[in-house]
Amino acid sequence: MITICRPLRYYLPRAQRGDLQRKLSTSPGLARHPSPSAHRWSHPPSSTIISDNDVASLASKSLHALSLADLVKHGRPPLPAPALFSSANFTLSLLPIRLAHRIQALRNLPFIVVSNPNISKIYNNYLHSLSTLLPYNHKTISNLQDEIKFTEVLADLVETHAHTIPTLARGFLECRKYINPTEVTRFLDGHLRARIGTRLIAEQHIALHMSSQPHSPPNPVEEQIPDQSASYIGVIDTALEPASIINSCGNFVSEICELKYGVRPTWIIDGEPDTTFAYVPVHLEYIITELLKNAFRATVESGRGHEPIIITIAAEPESQRGMPTSSTIESASPSGRDPTNPPIRPLQTSTPGVTIRIRDRGGGISPDVLPNIWSYSFTTFSDEDDLPPGSGNMDALNALSGTAGGGSSIAGLGYGLPLGRAYAEYFGGGIAVQSLYGWGSDVYLRLKGLGRLDI
Asked: Where is the region Disordered (predicted)?
C-alpha cells in the first residue's frame, strides 16, 4: 500500500528551521524530576516518579483563561532577549498546571481503562512532560542558557505528544466494553481541546525562540530572499489566505484519492478568494484537510467524481449586524464543551470572521447516522464487533460518504470531524453540516477572526 505523508509546515524563516532539532539531537538526555513518593495502587504503572503532592498542588490551581492577546503581547519577532525571557516565563507559568489537570483527568478514568497499554502510554507521556518542567517551576528564566534549555524541553514536550490522537483512538477502541461511550466522548472532547491549547502555548514560544534576535544572526544571503514569515507572530499568521490553504490541502487530498480510486477530484473556489485574516495556519490546515477528505471521498464513491467541489469564501464585514455568529454555527453541532477548557478569546470581541462553505454532490448523509457524526470512532462499535484492521472503522468521515468499513488512508481514525470542530471552536468559531440526503452536503466552517495585531 502506498501512503502519502504530509508533514505539518513549521512557519519559520528557512535558515532557522531545524536549528532546534539539531540542538536536540546533540543534547544530553533531560533528567527526570525525582520524588520519594510511590504511586497509589489506582495509578497505572509508570517509570516516571512524581510526587502525588506535586500533581495535586498544580491541578488544584485554576487554568489561565488564555487569550490571543497573551500570545502576541511579547511583540513582533525578532524579539530582544528581555521579551524572549518574558515569553518563556509566561509559558512556564501555564504548562505545568495544564499538564497536571490532564494527569488528574486520566487518573479519574476507570482503572481498567487507564491501564490499557495505549492509554497508559499517554498517561506516562504526561508524567514525563511534567517531570521535565518541574525543575523550572520555582525559578525565573533570565539568561539565554536557561532559555535555550527550556525551549529544548518544550520541543521534547511537543514531540512526545505528537501521536496522542491515534494512540488514544486505539486505546479507547480496545476499552469500549468497559466504559460508557458518552463518558468517553466527554473525556475526549475535554482532553483533545486541552491538548490544542497546550501545544499552541508550547509551539508559540518555540517559534518566537527560533525567530528572535539572540538565536537568529543576520544572514545576508537569506535577507535577499523575500521571507513569507514576515507576517508571522510566532505561529500566528497575521495575513493568512484561506484560499492558499485550501489549494494546498486540496492537492494533498486529491493525490490520496487518485491513489485509492484512480480519480482526482477537482474544486472551485469562489466568493472572496483574496480574503486575508489573522489565524493559526496549522490549525486551519487540519480542519480543511479533514473536511476535504469527507467531500472528495463522498463525491468519488457516489460516482460523481467528475463534478467539482464548490468552496465559497465569505469574509464578514466590519459591522456584523445580521451576520451569523459563532453561537449560530455551533447550535447545529452541540459539543458539550468542557467548562474547564474555554475557547480562546480573540483580541476584540467584535472581530469579524470568515465563513467557508464546502459543497459536494456526494449523496448526503443517511438520516440514521446523521446524529452520530460528531461522535468519536469508538461510539459506532457494538460490544460484539471485532476491532477493525488498521485504523479503518465506521466513523464521522465514513458517515459523510454513506459507506462503512475500509482501511484506506483517506478514512482516517474517525476523529477528523469532531476534532476539526474542536479546533474551530477553540477560537470561537464552529462547524455546521447540512445534508440533503440523496443529493449532497454543505459544510459551513466559521472561523472567528483573531483581531488586529497592531504591534
From this structure: 20-45, 317-363
Q: What's the CATH code of the domain at 125?
A: 1.20.140.20
Helix (H) or strand (E) holding 124: helix 117-133
**pLDDT tens digits, 60-104:** 999 887 777 788 888 889 999 999 999 999 999 999 999 999 999
- CA separation for the pair 311, 355 (Å, rounded): 10
- Residues 365 and 302 sit within 8 Å (Cβ to Cβ): no
CB 253 within 8 A of CB 209: no
In a domain, 298, yes or no: yes
Phi, psi of 230, deg, nearest 5: -60, -25
**Whether 244 and 293 share a structural domain:** yes
> Could you tell me if 320 and 349 are in contact, meaning their C-beta atoms sit under 8 angstroms apart?
no
Burial of 396 from C-beta contacts in 10 A (0-12 / 13-18 / 19+): buried
Specify whether the CB–CB gap between 414 and 170 falls below 8 A. no
| pLDDT > 90 in the chain, percent | 45
**pLDDT band (50, 70, 90) for residue 352:** low
Q: What are the DSSP E strand ranges found in 347-404?
A: 354-360
Number of domain units in the chain = 2
User: 346 — phi, psi (to 5°)?
Assistant: -75, 180
Residues 107-165 have pLDDT tens digits of 999 999 999 999 999 999 999 999 999 999 889 999 999 999 999 999 999 999 998 98
Tell me the C-alpha distance between 131 and 298, whole Å.
45
Residue 233, Cβ density class (10 Å: 0-12 exposed, 13-18 middle, ≥19 buried): buried
Q: Is the pTM of this model over 0.85?
A: no
Half-sphere exposure of 279 (CA within 13 A, CB side): 29
CA separation for the pair 373, 375 (Å, rounded): 6
One domain, residues 203 and 332: no
The helix (H) or strand (E) run that includes residue 440 is strand 440-447
Distance CA 356, CA 270 (A): 10
Cα–Cα distance measured from residue 389 to residue 377, given in angstroms and rounded to the nearest whole number? 14
Q: Which domain holds residue 50?
A: 14-221
Answer yes or no: do 214 and 305 share one domain.
no
CA distance 305 to 264: 8
**Which residue type sits at 403?**
T
Vertex 146: Cα angle to 140 and 150 (nearest 5): 90
Whether the CB-CB separation of 202 and 96 falls below 8 Å is answered with no
- Which sign, positive or negative, has the C-alpha torsion 156, 196, 88, 213? positive
Q: What is the rounded CA–CA span in Å between residue 424 and residue 416?
A: 12
**What span, in angstroms and rounded, lies between the C-alpha atoms of 241 and 239?**
6
Is the distance from CB of 192 to CB of 169 less than 8 angstroms? no
Question: How far apart are the C-alpha atoms of 224 and 369, rounded to whole Å?
Answer: 55
